[in-house]
Amino acid sequence: MLIVRPAGPSDLASLMELAVLSGRGFTSLPEDEATLLNRLTLSEASFSGAIAPREAWYTLMLEDSETGRIEGLGGVRAAVGVARPHFSFRVMTLAQFSSAINTRFDHKALVLVNECAGWTEVGSLYLRPERRSGGAGSLLARSRYMLIGTERQRFSETVMAELRGYFAPDGTCPFWDGVASKFFRLPFDEADHMVMSTDGQFILDLAPRHPIYVELIDTAAQEAIGRVHIEGEAARAMLEHEGFRGSGLIDIFDGGPTYSVPRDSIRTIERTEVLAAMKGDPADAPERLVSTASLGGFRAIRAKVRIEEGVATLDGGAIDALRLKSGEMVRVRQ
């Protein structure tokens, strides 16, 4: 059985392995043990309630209960842009009009903004390539919304997701080469690593302060604006299914799009109800997404659930996987 559970420092080796597999451009999963250990320590403190809600960053591991192997991870960051600005480019239209020649010009431009401050971010969604079918991705992705639903007041009214930007078949990043590198003047991998391993001061120091006219950048970089990495297409489809839509914001490094949605409009949150759990035979009941109802001991699985008169009946394996006692509350996605 696949179980989504909180991550902690003991998961460092598995997280490092996934970081290596994830490849270039996966900013939230750098190949750096110190950075990953800090993240796992922060996750443990977040689930235990040891830090302020807005500073929490919850990391979830997808574990195969039969083999013990970690098959993927996902994350929920309670609020971005709190300790430091969270910069994006907004793709805007700047209109210019000349009465002398009675002509109007509309120019697309990239404008540096800090609009996401305080938003909750769902991200870090990564699965081993061999697990990208059979519902594992859906379980992992939706478990993040189940987590948010357990204690909504801990999370922002707006939820965002940043999708990895486009990389060419030769491994280059057209948006970085055509735009961002002109300001940061570092190799992409070095700048990408610095995002997570430093306080980000270099972004504050070097990011462009004035609009960048899209017509003035090369064609390859223009075409990469808002384009998703080939490995991110499935993630985008899942986001759209939950109600996320493009926000008009893009990443300042790789040009990938930022999607957003009102927290209470996320489909999984809307269609989830809280029920008392009971151990029994669900018989031919349908499989549903089910999680614990508390943040501290959060766990999520897919299992057969029979719902009758406010009671969710699950078999012994599901009850054990969720570490529940009969009568405890669960959240069930309809």
Automatic annotation (TrEMBL):
InterPro entries found in the cross-reference section: Acyl_CoA_acyltransferase (IPR016181), Arg_succinylTrfase_AstA/AruG (IPR007041)
A biological process from GO: L-arginine catabolic process
UniProt name for this protein: Arginine succinyltransferase
Annotated transmembrane regions: none
Enzyme Commission number: 2.3.1.109
Species per Swiss-Prot/TrEMBL record: Rhizorhabdus wittichii (strain DSM 6014 / CCUG 31198 / JCM 15750 / NBRC 105917 / EY 4224 / RW1)
GO molecular function, one term: arginine N-succinyltransferase activity
Record keywords: Acyltransferase, Arginine metabolism, Transferase
The organism's place on the tree of life at top rank: Bacteria
